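Appendix B, record 7
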Amino acid sequence: MTNKDITIIITSFRSDAKIESCLKSINQEIKVLVIENSNNKELKDKIENKYSNVKCFLSDKNLGYAKGNNIGLKMVETKYCIILNPDAELYDNTIENFLLTAKKNPNFAIIGPYIQEDTDVSKKVLNKNSLIEVNNLKGFALFLNMKEFLDIGFFDENFFIYFEEIDLCRRLKLKNKRIYLDPTIKVKHLGGSSHNSEFNEEMELSRNWHWMWSTFYYHRKYNGYFISFIRILPKLISSLIRIIFYTFIFNSKKRKIYFQRFSGILNSMMLKNSWYRPKIF
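Structure tokens (predicted):
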């Protein structure tokens, strides 16, 4: 197995300042598909002219992380694929270690790199030289064995952002497919900063809306409406109380955040699609 057996997919949205470092860290023998969730032709021209291994596709509108990744995944012709966040960077031995693990353990669906805060392994004794089978992985860097997805498909496009990788892993586990975390594989991840800094405030509002929408949708998908309603109702009430509180003390920033959380939960409970989009032009 070589670098030619891998395609890397990066789904981005206004990530001009971050994606450059990501692309620099990737060996130029590896094919890279960038799905840019905007009509940023300047970014497309810049990275395609600079990196001969990169092809950038513009979606013209913000399709979200799940759908953006699916667009790329449907174009993959290689045996393996890496889903990579634009604010992540590979180390010199990252790809080599992914391929080595895949060769030793060919019957896997996803392999993920180890990061210190991984809660799924926090209670286990970590042997630095062995794989750990887990129920889910963090979505910033996922090494996919493409043949294992033929019968389940890829990401659920109802998720705009958040929970899409947890849902994918859960569907894999229901089919008795194997998901591994490899402590020998490292990927640098800044986390929560894939977009340009000037969009921070609007992206914070969007994150809060979508986190709550996806939370209810995910639980409803696997536990039914009634149980999910009971579980999430305290979050709805808490958000409403905080809206009232921050209105009275004239903290408009906090009020906006909790209004987004309230709206996200309410829309999901009302069975509405994940419609909110960041107001960025």
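Remarks on this record: Residues 3-189 form a domain with the Spore Coat Polysaccharide Biosynthesis Protein SpsA; Chain A fold (CATH 3.90.550.10). The two ends are 43 Å apart (CA to CA).
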